[in-house]
Amino acid sequence: MSRTTSAPEPATTGTSGTTPAEAPLSHGLKQRHLSMIALGGVIGAGLFVGSGTAIAAAGPSIVLAYAVSGALVMLVMRMLGEMAAANPASGSFSVHAERAIGPWAGFTAGWSFWFLLCVAVGLEGIGAAKIMTGWLPGTPEWAWVALFMVVFCGTNLAAVKNFGEFEFWFAALKVGAIVLFLGIGVLAIAGVLPGTDAPGTSNLTGRGGFLPNGSEGLIVGLLASVFAYGGLETVTIAAAESEHPVQGVAKAVRTAMWRIAIFYVGSMAVVVTLLPWTDKSVAEKGPYVATLDALGIPAAGQIMNVVVLVALLSAMNANIYGSSRMAASLVARGQGPKALGRISSGVPRVAVLVSSVFGFGCVLLSYWRPDDVFMWLLNMIGAIILVVWFFIAVSQLLLRRRLEREAPGTLVVRMWAYPYLTYAALAGMAAVFVLMAREEGTRIQLYSTGGLTLALAALGYVRQRRRTAA
Question: Domains in the chain, start-ordered, CATH in brackets?
């Protein structure tokens, strides 16, 4: 028999300042689930498809772009891991921002991330539906999106272990595909793959050299690569519902470096070494399909379509999960409507339903109002991940001093070279904001996200003042 409760009111602890109470969620994720979520969480559909346009802009220097942005992401993950291991919470960085900066910051970071995930669910559903209609022409896209939404909404409504099991197998397939691609690529580069000759460095130094489009091309590639890393934060949200939250977060953060280096930087290096960056198929088919086709791998396009479909479905599943947990955590801290935070059998079912409906609403808007309302939504989420990273860095900067003073034993994971690398990460984020303002293609996204962030911050501050006055 399921027990239904409302999310608890905020509470305080005596060790590290005010720590908002979390909703009574279950701990149904096993260590193998969390490990694979951490491993597969870095592999999104953007890596398989979206990286093609980045290569077309940056040329071989895309390897440098992914390495630089990957270094920034590793710093962010290290900071988040330090806070998450010290205080595991399903609200993750929103909880940390509230403890470090104030309730308005937790409100802003949490609801902006919820908005990002819900819109992303719709985008991923549309992408998955396009693949299905390519295989089954004549079937309506919206029907496929609805089917996927019902499946993953149902999965997340039932129990957290269902989410974990889906993500385990999704991640296993994505990791297997990337590892196989890298293996084939290394053999081809070495010239030992049957039917291929070693390309040498001709594709890296020819056709304009390593930086064929100069610094502007590198900047475009850098911006594209930064946003390809979005989604790494889910593992710290999921850790709060795992059997061993602290150990799980610590392991995930410590292995982030080699995962980013191998999956992103490594695969980009293989692509630009084996294929000329000017090859139109890189952007049209996607870099992985184009590379496998060039190597004569049979049915490469269909194989990668299956992998991309899995990546999209995995992202849908993870985003419905992440958005529902973030919403439940916000409500538990008095930062949202109470009905949204009701917990049944350890699952925030109302939040799951609302997040799914919001995501499907975005899909319908893509058909009804594609040129205005839907584009407005897309522009607003354009730089949210950078805003979240900014809150993570500032929170870690403030909380680290407090933890060293009040609870040093909780610092299982420590940020490297604190506070210097934290400041370096903040400078890197500021640089990305400046580059976005310079580029015409990203300027509107920056301003739209800025407007949303300011509106949420103002609302959060007003709520904070009212609660303080009461």
Answer: 28-469 (1.20.1740.10)
